[in-house]
Amino acid sequence: xxxxxxxxxxxxxxxxxxxxxxxxxxxxxxxxxxxxxxxxxxxxxxxxxxxxxxxxxxxxxxxxxxxxxxxxxxxxxxxxxxxxxxxxxxxxxxxxxxxxxxxxxxxxxxxxxxxxxxxxxxxxxxxxxxxxxxxxxxxxxxxxxxxxxxxxxxxxxxxxxxxxxxxxxxxxxxxxxxxxxxxxxxxxxxxxxxxxxxxxxxxxxxxxxxxxxxxxxxxxxxxxxxxxxxxxxxxxxxxxxxxxxxxxxxxxxxxxxxxxxxxxxxxxxxxxxxxxxxxxxxxxxxxxxxxxxxxxxxxxxxxxxxxxxxxxxxxxxxxxxxxxxxxxxxxxxxxxxxxxxxxxxxxxxxxxxxxxxxxxxxxxxxxxxxxxxxxxxxxxxxxxxxxxxxxxxxxxxxxxxxxxxxxxxxxxxxxxxxxxxxxxxxxxxxxxxxxxxxxxxxxxxxxxxxxxxxxxxxxxxxxxxxxxxxxxxxxxxxxxxxxxxxxxxxxxxxxxxxxxxxxxxxxxxxxxxxxxxxxxxxxxxxxxxxxxxxxxxxxxxxxxxxxxxxxxxxxxxxxxxxxxxxxxx
Amino acid sequence: xxxxxxxxxxxxxxxxxxxxxxxxxxxxxxxxxxxxxxxxxxxxxxxxxxxxxxxxxxxxxxxxxxxxxxxxxxxxxxxxxxxxxxxxxxxxxxxxxxxxxxxxxxxxxxxxxxxxxxxxxxxxxxxxxxxxxxxxxxxxxxxxxxxxxxxxxxxxxxxxxxxxxxxxxxxxxxxxxxxxxxxxxxxxxxxxxxxxxxxxxxxxxxxxxxxxxxxxxxxxxxxxxxxxxxxxxxxxxxxxxxxxxxxxxxxxxxxxxxxxxxxxxxxxxxxxxxxxxxxxxxxxxxxxxxxxxxxxxxxxxxxxxxxxxxxxxxxxxxxxxxxxxxxxxxxxxxxxxxxxxxxxxxxxxxxxxxxxxxxxxxxxxxxxxxxxxxxxxxxxxxxxxxxxxxxxxxxxxxxxxxxxxxxxxxxxxxxxxxxxxxxxxxxxxxxxxxxxxxxxxxxxxxxxxxxxxxxxxxxxxxxxxxxxxxxxxxxxxxxxxxxxxxxxxxxxxxxxxxxxxxxxxxxxxxxxxxxxxxxxxxxxxxxxxxxxxxxxxxxxxxxxxxxxxxxxxxxxxxxxxxxxxxxxx
Lengths: 569, 569
Description:
The first copy, chain A, is an alpha/beta fold. Helix content of chain A is about 40%, strand content about 20%.
């Protein structure tokens, strides 16, 4: 009676379950865009598939008004021209509700099996998705491929594994038998049915539409809910491709494809989203975006369980460091990667004004600041190589923010525009690095400056740095905290600060791991313990409220023999 | 390094874990008030301990203003005269926050071990707690003992088991090692620290202060949170005793006893509770009570994760029945038990106006209504026996509601006052049973009439009965649904209705199990899938949001040998 798609992917599922339990390195989806894995023509085919979407109407056989929407602009300097079928919200909700009824009845193995099959198909479309991610988010190709495809698929699989881990712990039925002394026992047969919540709404973001959108989408799907995917109007295509693949798999498996639908919108869709988010049929909302919108959902969408990832202030505490150059290289990479447009990118770098200890002796604050500045400049010195790291600026708001930030403090490295060798209209900016002082500038650095904007902040001591790191994370939110120290006591104090701030800590990163990176199956992305996110990707809390258990009980014949009737058989 | 209290109770914990996984019958706390289990003088000692609390100030060594509060009235007709130390909210929160810091650092095994030790001590105090429950809630002694002591302890243990089941799945650390082709792998050591949310607030009710209060209290405690227990002003004593025992155990185990504190209040404490519930330090709220107050918390206490159990409309669908007398006896018992003041007590009994099929042939609607009326009358015919089932009416509001309800429809059985043989001032009322019609009276029976008030409702068909049952549960909430049918198809349809309504279903109860009863470790109490409760007692969703995981990572030497360096060792 095992669902065939469950059986097909059971081995992968079991490996994923082992991985989330032990949290060592594991990934089933190859992160290198290798022809050996993805086919000799994979790259070319994917790019062609992306190009075929431009200046074209995206085919999607879901309920539509007949009109089309869509106004995506590539940060590399051209309009996508992709149009999407416009959906009427009422019709879409009705279709999702209808589809959910039979989907619900299919049960956990079908939900898991279909989810895993969708993931396998998405993996095959990795190049197509990568180019779509690149030309909506502005990520450079390699990041668009890795974060947009295999890493996003990993995060999705992780959510499916957590879902199964929860679902499998609810038995389908039980025999309950309560002794009654000399009287026959009371005996009942009980059935436990998983009751999904209904319809989930996934609200995508414009920087990581798949990586941030997949966990909620697959967590909903794997627990029997229907899902309406509402991409950010600036990054529709990667999720549209995803929805189409999901619908193909659902249809082939004999389900109503409206279990997964797309709600594509034109820019400035706020009022539409607010109306939708308050609809009584919407029971789950997964949101990635601004603090303002996320907080609005948390405070108003009472009918739904709301999962949010919002803004935060990521911080680095430099106390002492063995190899300052290596540390500066690592930090500069984190600042430059996708132009600081990662929710995990550091912003505040605290350095004691009295300087720090290194293997090469004491370094002054200015020397440390200069080392960081030099590392950033080196990384961006060769425009052709730099653009492969920086990518492009997703929208004009980020570019304007760089200009606003410039006057906040002393400029250590100024941001400049770069020409992209392949895309003449690309919006490319190098990182802006400023110097601030904890004594006077708290108001400047206690909020998020999203984009390639960061601050080297003079503090009275590492103690003050850690105090700031913990309290800012707790008050304003943070997804990452990084510490550099050669002192075990300071590392332990940083650990305490990270718990106070509810933020993940990285210690002495000087090599090939960067604070921005979060590995599925091992790193919890976000904690839910500070305002940057009310949930982690992924843990039991991310899953457990997406379904309920409804039970029934009926008397049956006892299995045990009552005490007075002699020995049990 | 196992905490001694964890080791002491590990066997019980493992049995509880097995029970929640298989959901068969299991209980470690003996439900019969037997001298063999609870001691020859257990009953007398417990009653004496209760009496010693009356007209006395309850000693509690927690921060206090020096004043006292408390105005509990026994539904059996006397003022308790127990006074409790008054606590200042600011001082209490500060003390809880301080205590929580070291409690947090003690880690999961200490949280679980201490929680289980508290439960063992509570079990020893079962008689004292039973008399306190009896004289605050109005429950008859046997129910006060069972539901107030061992069954409440079972529910608490269940919450502790679920907590450990979640906590143990987060490894304390991991070795993460990512291959890098011919280069040495990236290797990191990761630590995962459980970060409790902070301070939990338990808001007790006046009918089942321990049974409904313990799950939240112990779920919080077992996941490392401090807890402020705010009993209903009408039922303080059972939770005051509980808090004192918890503090004793905490102190003996070397912890700050302010991990658990009591906030006793005088009646009409609404504004105080609202202020407290919005305090930023309060991260978890467990509430049992009115829909109005529960909904207010859900909509306003945004800083906390709020768990509520509110009002509901419990229903019985009678389609056909083998032995009508047995069914009527079972239903009448459910109506009379604690005078319908159980959140699980049935209110609406749907019977087709065309009558039903029984083993003795067709019965008309009136015959079914009369059978139910007769069964209620028989059960309450002998006042001395009846009061042991009915108990007393908790407060005047319930008594007044009976009077209001009387005019809603045709009276099948009128409610009357009974003299209690042992307590001359006891507020005892027999159940009121009215006849209504689904065609005209929906507005009358679609809300909760809390107390011994129920309706036999004529419907067009069982189909309509099930439609009403599902939709009322979904819209107005319900904790129980019961169906009587000899037809497999109808039972399956009832199962579908129960899933639509998100409500637990009992089928053909004619023997020693009653729809009001919910067995720990086997029955999920509430589902979280309809407005009667936003969570179940107890499942993973009841636990998973009470803590977060904060991780750290640091580079370590790889364990594997890179590919080019030859074979792995």
